[in-house]
């Protein structure tokens, strides 16, 4: 069962990706241009780029989980960015991306969703679907 936790602003800057996670104890979420809700997480891994003296480098990217519009809250897909931060270690790459403003993460989400959308997108937003008399079928949804 979910419970509301009071934000603790002493834990960081809630206007950044990592700060929001720390302050609210949950990932930041955005509405995408397709009308779906997305939560964001930072993923790290081997960036495949050689650093000084041939050492491997770690990368960090943004991973956005797409959530269902109606009914029980369940993931129904995702989009992810390329490496947005590269550093000698995964912790350093994660820290660099965690310092990004939420507005920048939202911009990346909108670019990723726009790049995968067909030319004609459904015009209905989630609130229109909730008020519809007949069951919604997201046939045009990815």
Task: Describe the global form.
Answer: globular
Question: What portion of the residues fall into strands of 2 or more residues?
Answer: 25-35%
In round numbers, the mean pLDDT is 83
- Taking all Cα atoms into account, the compactness measure Rg is 18 Å
Oligomer: single chain
Percent of residues in helices? 25-40%
In total, how many beta strands? 5
Distance, first to last CA = 29 Å
Count of discrete alpha- or pi-helical segments spanning 4 or more residues: 4
In terms of structural class, how would the helical and strand content be classed? alpha+beta
Spell the H/E element sequence: HEEEEEHHH
Contiguous low-pLDDT stretches (5 residues minimum) are none
Largest sheet: 5 strands, antiparallel
Molecular structure report:
The chain has 142 residues and is α+β, with helices and mostly antiparallel strands. The chain has helices spanning 17-24, 90-98, 102-116, 126-130, and strands at 29-31, 37-50, 56-67, 75-80, 85-87. The chain is 26% helix and 27% strand. A hairpin with a 5-residue loop joins strand 1 (29-31) and strand 2. The mean pLDDT is 83.
Give a quick set of tags describing it.
single chain; alpha+beta
What does this entry show, briefly?
The protein is α+β, with helices and mostly antiparallel strands and 142 residues long.
């Amino acid at each position: 069962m979910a419970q509301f936790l009071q934000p603790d602003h002493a834990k960081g800057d809630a206007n950044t990706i990592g700060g929001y996670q720390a302050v609210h104890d949950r990932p930041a979420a955005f509405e995408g241009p397709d009308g779906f809700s997305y939560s964001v997480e930072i993923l790290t891994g081997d960036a495949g780029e050689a650093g000084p003296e041939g050492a491997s480098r770690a990368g960090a990217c943004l991973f956005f989980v797409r959530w269902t519009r109606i009914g029980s809250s369940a993931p129904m897909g995702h989009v992810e960015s390329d490496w947005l931060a590269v550093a000698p270690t995964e912790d350093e790459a994660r820290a660099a991306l965690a310092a990004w403003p939420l507005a920048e993460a939202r911009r990346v989400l909108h670019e990723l969703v726009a790049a995968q959308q067909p030319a004609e997108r459904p015009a209905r937003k989630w609130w229109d679907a909730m008020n519809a008399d007949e069951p919604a079928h997201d046939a045009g949804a990815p």
